[in-house]
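Action item from last week, closing it out:
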Amino acid sequence: MICCKEIDEYIKFVEENPNETDEEIKLLIKNIVKPTLSRDDVFFDEEMFHKAVKYCERWYYKLFPYQKFAYALFFMYDKNNPDIVIFPDIFILMARGNGKDGMIMPLANFLQTHYYGVKNYHIDIVATSEEQALNSFNVVYNMLESNKIIMKKYFYWNKTEIINKITHSILRYNTANAKTKDGKQTGMIIFNELHAYENYKQINVYSSGLGKIKHARTVTITTNGTVRDGPLDEKISSSRQILNGENNFLGLLPIIYKIDDIQTVDIPMKKFLRTNNKADIDITVWCQANPSLRYMPILKDTIIKDYVKMQKQKSYRVEFLAKRMNLPQQDEEQVVTEWKNIQRASYSDIENEIPRLEGEINGRAAIVGIDFASLNDFASAGFLFKKDGEYIWRQRTWICSKSKFFGDIKFPFDNIGQDGYEDFEIVNTDSINGRDMIMWVINEMVKYNVKKIVLDTYRYKLLEQVFKELGVSIETKDNPYGLVRMIRYPASIAAIVAPRIEVAFAEGKINIGNSAIMRWAINNTSVKDGKDGNKKYEKIEPKLRKNDPFMAFVAAMSVQELLDEEVIYVYM
């Protein structure tokens, strides 16, 4: 049994202060830390751990108990092969202002030194912006500048690199094109603010340099953010599985601090807002997302001021929850539905990401919805079914890689073909071929009893020739049974459909299957009240956050009454 005073003290603190630590920390201790301490194949380098603490506190600042707890877990090794760390993938998620850089950078600097003693243990700081990368790098740079007389014996440094003279280990920051960084021999990579990453391109390039130096580690340290279904959400999902007791083959160490329940956010301030006496503020629940809060009066004062600002400026609540409580929320007055409802539309079990199935739909009544802004951008088509009161939507999206916005669109296209990324295709031509899209619809139609194909007049005009060539009939006054129905006034349709869709999401009656691009499209769509009081749909960001898959769904929902359960008469 491994004994470590700092780990034991923090475990005791968590047990004695259950309201101050979130469920994820309790699960970390129960299902990862305690089992690791009891393993007979794990070696804890206690001497090196204490050297690290001493170095960091000597040259930087006194560490908080939770930071010492985390540091200790860095120094767990495979007893049979001490070159391999037990936790090569460390994931730290906490609210802004808690000193993420101040927590990880002193330790990174220690790992460069002769005290640690690993030659060429290069450390790369990776961020999406130069400012963020520099913020991390400068923690070490500023310490060296403040202690030049002593530190110049051990380090060379400039504004881009810090090199230890004895181990030749280099600390550097990176923001340039990921393509130029392949093949680095790296000991540790620090991915800063993962919430800003839209895909794995940069992550994978840097990670490919690991494995050539012993004690290879990846550290991800971040707050939460607004990019959904990206690398951060996948990391959180993997962490949740490990925290709940699944086998941890990859050695993931998820240290997650967040508010457990959004309903508790307002509790610390309720009495204070009546009395205006700071003594009435009990910050205990806020510490779930802010483990440094009880030790940092300045942070406490800042969060209180942000909370008061939120009371006077209601639009600030979304930012406050994401920034200070590590609990990102969308503006409920803007988005179609909250993210949890979108996830519920995809998964029967959100935590374990078990997809919602549709059962047998062959032969059922269906509505086809089609939408696109331009055929040199995005285009979507899908089939809507209604079964046991549930709206089932299965779609396909075509993306033009020649679009001038393609490289900046915030969706992980590189995942194409993986689970959840199988219902779209990338077209490497100047525009999407409308015939290909309609032929996909026609080929799929043979499986179902299609009642209508719905799109607005503008889209129909662009596809009119294709429909005529394929002999698809058009609904008119003279031919009310025509297959294609044109929406002449899309805004009026949204006014009718939006309330119905809102209720269906809230009741869990929408089933989109495991479709990442559909979740993304819904999350990109705002619903607003027009001057006439009617609801209308808009893109949250007009160029990069596409919503064509969702708008195709809206088109199909405009005639959902055609999907009412059919009555079958049996004559005896």
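Closing note: Confidence is low (pLDDT under 50) at residues 567-572.
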